[in-house]
């Protein structure tokens, strides 16, 4: 019970002897362990040699003869380097264009007065409601008409404008004191110069929060790229993993599936473990993407 | 332009009132022009992929091809009627309702439990929060790949450890009566940690001194939860319910990877039905009609989330 006492050291003195909160905490600890089991299995199965046979595949105790064969197999059969490259291109492309569109639009909403501001604000808000994934059918025919079927640009395009990002930047820009801008105005700085040299550098935390949300959500996109991409060499990681899983499932190569899954999620997990606090606070702001 | 305006105004009013209105309009437009230019890049993409897409759904839902190669012709509401008469669609709607309720309630309940247990910040609770949050980060496809093995009959993780305790080992993904529940388990595992974050944020608004006072008045943990914490968390609940419902409509990647809607359509969800109509049956008319119905159903939710977001001052 000393650990529990330590955990409750800043709880109100009188409530420390209550049993229910302790039971709740215990239950949460147990569930957190359950929550980690799929990841644990993934790690153990990745290192398990195929010679252990299918019947011990579910064993959560690591094999005594760990091997990297599964990782090598997944790397070679799965074409994961290519998929990783495609996903990186997609996420970077979307993010770069978004940075431009949300900075400009966010500034307009934060600092400029114009006719129809409320109406346009609601037009932006609509995008938060009409979740893009629901509009896959009309957007696919548009992408095809634009000649972008089976291209990475086609995968990226529907996400170039972001209402969420625009509102995030509007909030960030509104918090910047106007005196700074006035000083630059006297020095003769143009609108774009003021955005570039005053507003953008002072809003880096918001940009990084947005980057985290944007990259994780598009790293994980599946249905839309599945519809747009036809050529195997243009698949992003998620589509590649689903094809790879379907193939390997047939041969019961669960070690390779675990290794493939590990490769797909490792970049996200590592980045998360390094920037944990940033991730958590960004996701809290993300409410609706 | 600011200097030219006052000089021009008296002339305009004496000449023709209409011209005056036009000039004022032009003046306002000119003053607004920089803002419009800044908004233009975003508006172009929103017009193409959000508003334009809405319009195309409306139009496409009214047209149909007699054969896959025939030209489209106007069919009015036939597509909508066909979708509503399609047992696969109505089945998907029922599944989706079961799925929405069956994932929202457990994941929100768990999220609340996690948040209450981990609301104090220390090294242990941070580590536990991170563990519970991990599934949120990973692609649904990756989660599905892992759960494919977990649910694998006989040798899978679940059967290996728990199956031996059961009299009959169920075929988790192969049995039409169980498959949807199996799909829901993945969603709960993946989303509970996400909703936990909002409850953690909401709990910070609960005043510590009120809690202490309630305790001194003899309120136990459950009474404090019922009369102090839950009322305080009401906006968070509304917000999380909206997100959970949206997720129930938009997250179907695991259906694609694990069951393809089967066995016998028992795990088919609305968005997967739309995908099937468009990609597997090349039936854009029916796919658009189903999209339209889904969007219409979400309109009610939209109104609700507008209100929720207004409560949270711009959606946080």
Number of strands of chain B: 2
CATH architecture of the largest domain in chain B: Orthogonal Bundle
How many structurally independent domains of chain B? 2
* Beginning-to-end CA distance, first to last residue of chain B: 38 Å
The biggest chain-chain interface is:
A-B, 110 and 110 residues
The CATH topology of the largest domain in chain B is MetI-like fold
User: Please, how many domains of chain A?
Assistant: 2
- CATH fold-level name of the largest domain in chain A: MetI-like fold
Helical segment count of chain B: 14
Q: Are there runs of chain A of 5+ residues with pLDDT below 50, and where?
A: none
What oligomeric state do the depicted chains represent? heterodimer
Features:
heterodimer; A: 289 residues; mainly alpha; MetI-like fold; 15 helices; globular; B: 316 residues; 2 domains; two-stranded antiparallel sheet; 74% helix; flat; disordered N terminus
What does this structure look like?
The complex is a heterodimer of chains A (289) and B (316). With 289 residues, chain A is an all-alpha fold. Chain A contains 15 helices and no strands. Chain A folds into 2 domains: 66 residues, no CATH class; 209 residues, MetI-like (MetI-like fold, Orthogonal Bundle). The two termini of chain A are 42 Å apart. The relative contact order of chain A is 0.13. Chain B has 316 residues and is mainly α. Chain B folds into 2 domains: 57 residues, no CATH class; 234 residues, MetI-like fold. The N terminus of chain B is likely disordered. Classes of the chains: A mainly alpha (289), B mainly alpha (316). At the A-B interface, helix 2, helix 4, helix 5, helix 6 and helix 8 of A face helix 2, helix 4, helix 5, helix 6 and helix 7 of B.
């Amino acid at each position: 019970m000393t650990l529990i006492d330590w955990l409750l050291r800043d709880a109100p003195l009188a409530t420390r002897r209550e049993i229910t909160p302790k039971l709740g905490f215990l239950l949460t600890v147990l569930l957190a362990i359950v929550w980690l089991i799929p990841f644990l299995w993934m790690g153990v199965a990745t290192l398990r040699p195929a010679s252990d046979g299918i019947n011990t595949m579910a064993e959560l105790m690591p094999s005594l003869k760990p091997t990297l064969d599964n990782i090598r197999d997944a790397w070679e059969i799965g074409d994961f380097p290519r998929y990783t490259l495609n996903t990186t291109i997609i996420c970077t492309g979307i993010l770069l264009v978004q940075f431009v569109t949300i900075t400009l639009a966010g500034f307009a909403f934060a600092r400029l007065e114009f006719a129809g501001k409320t109406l346009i604000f609601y037009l932006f808000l609509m995008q938060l409601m009409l979740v893009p994934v629901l509009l896959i059918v009309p957007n696919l025919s548009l992408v095809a008409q634009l000649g972008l079927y089976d291209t990475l640009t086609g995968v990226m395009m529907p996400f170039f404008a972001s209402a969420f990002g625009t509102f995030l930047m509007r909030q960030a820009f509104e918090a910047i004191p106007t005196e700074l801008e006035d000083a630059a105005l006297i020095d003769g700085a143009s609108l774009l110069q003021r955005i570039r040299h005053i507003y953008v550098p002072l809003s880096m935390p918001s940009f990084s929060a947005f980057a985290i949300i944007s990259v994780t959500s598009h790293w994980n996109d599946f249905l839309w790229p599945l519809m747009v991409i036809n050529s195997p060499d243009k698949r992003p990681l998620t589509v590649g993993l689903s094809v790879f899983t379907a193939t390997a499932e047939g041969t019961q190569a669960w070690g390779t599936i675990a290794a493939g899954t590990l490769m797909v999620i490792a970049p996200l997990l590592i980045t998360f473990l390094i920037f944990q606090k940033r991730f958590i606070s960004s996701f809290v702001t993300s409410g609706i993407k | 332009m600011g200097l030219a305006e006052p000089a021009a105004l008296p002339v305009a009013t004496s000449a023709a009132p209409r011209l005056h209105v036009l000039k004022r309009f032009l003046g306002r437009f000119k003053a607004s022009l920089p803002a419009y230019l800044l908004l233009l890049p975003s508006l172009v993409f929103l017009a193409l992929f959000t508003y334009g897409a809405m319009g195309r759904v409306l139009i496409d839902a009214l047209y149909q091809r007699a054969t896959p190669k025939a030209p489209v012709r106007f069919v009015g509401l036939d597509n909508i009627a066909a979708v509503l008469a399609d047992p696969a669609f109505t089945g998907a709607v029922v599944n989706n309702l079961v799925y929405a309720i069956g994932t929202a309630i457990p994941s929100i309940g768990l999220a609340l439990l996690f948040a209450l247990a981990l609301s104090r910040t220390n090294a242990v609770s941070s580590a536990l929060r991170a563990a519970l949050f991990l599934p949120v980060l990973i692609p649904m496809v990756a989660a599905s790949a892992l759960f494919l093995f977990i649910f694998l009959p006989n040798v899978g993780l679940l059967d290996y450890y728990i199956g031996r305790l059961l009299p009959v080992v169920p075929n988790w993904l192969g049995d039409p009566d169980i498959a949807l529940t199996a799909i829901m388990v993945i969603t709960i595992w993946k989303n509970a940690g996400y909703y936990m974050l909002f409850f953690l944020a909401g709990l910070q608004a609960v005043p510590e001194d009120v809690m202490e006072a309630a305790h001194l008045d003899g309120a136990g943990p459950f009474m404090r939860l019922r009369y102090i914490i839950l009322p305080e968390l009401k906006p968070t609940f509304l917000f999380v319910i909206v997100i959970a419902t949206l997720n129930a409509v938009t997250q179907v990647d695991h259906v694609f990877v694990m069951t393809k809607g089967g066995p016998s359509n028992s795990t088919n969800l609305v968005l997967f039905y739309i995908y099937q109509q468009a990609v597997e049956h090349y039936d854009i008319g029916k796919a658009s009609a189903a999209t339209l119905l889904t969007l219409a159903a979400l309109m009610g939710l939209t109104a609700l989330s507008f209100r929720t977001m207004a409560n949270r001052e711009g959606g946080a």
